[in-house]
Amino acid sequence: MKIQLIAAVAVMGLGMAGCATREDVVPVPYKVHGGAQIGAGVHVTVTVNDARTTDRTKIANKTNGYGMEMAAIRADRGVADIVKDAFEAELKSRGFAIGTGGSNATVAINNFYGTFQSHLFSGDALGDVKFHVSVMSPAGASAYDREVDVIGKLEGIQLASGSNAATALSDGMSKALDTLFADPAFVAALENHGAEQASSSKAGS
């Protein structure tokens, strides 16, 4: 029985280290969650900046069976583009329109990095996602400011692979955006400026 256990642990370690010396280039998928139609055509301008201070060319590193970092895992396109598309998709799904004339939402990406944890017979992929989000009125007044820091997770993995890291980061991105849209102050910042935009349009007509 002891020999079988040692063999199982060895297999797990080899599995987690599979192709650890070869870089992966992967897409980071995102599924829109959506919500109530609160936007009603309100315009929002979205700006996303990659503010990471470490190596911005990768989103994770593979690890070997001892937890040592190995080959890089890279996204197939810019992280700022990935986050911008996801953010805009969530806005559109709630009725907001993407464009000038309304409030200005800015997202600074402070962290977007995947790691792996090894357990006895499997492991977990973790996606550390940290955004600093601000909303400004069309006149340039600050209406919202918040840092969102979440951990995405994919449990029970056998490989420290690019696709598993990307899935964990996607989960982290989903949690970050869910946190934002669940914050009444964030929604109010967008809605209130939308009301200002509508009032200005009526006044000018």
- Number of discrete helical segments: 4
Sketch the major β-sheet.
Answer: 5 strands, mixed
Mean pLDDT: 86
Beta-strand fraction estimate = 25-35%
Gyration radius, to the nearest Å? 21 Å
What is the share of helical residues? 25-40%
C-alpha termini separation: 83 Å
User: How would you describe the shape?
Assistant: elongated
Describe the strand arrangement of the main beta sheet, using strand numbers. 5-2-6-7-8
How does the SSE layout of this entry go?
Layout: H1 2-16, E1 24-26, E2 43-50, E3 60-63, E4 69-75, H2 79-93, E5 97-98, E6 103-118, E7 123-136, E8 142-157, H3 162-181, H4 184-204
Parallel strand pairs: 1-4, 2-5, 2-6
Antiparallel strand pairs: 3-4, 6-7, 7-8
Can you offer a commentary on this structure?
35% of the residues lie in helices and 34% in strands. It contains four helices and eight strands. The chain has helices spanning 2-16, 79-93, 162-181, 184-204; strands spanning 24-26, 43-50, 60-63, 69-75, 97-98, 103-118, 123-136, 142-157. The chain has a five-stranded mixed beta sheet with strand order 5-2-6-7-8. The protein has a three-stranded mixed beta sheet with strand order 1-4-3, with helices on one face. It starts with a helix and ends with a helix.
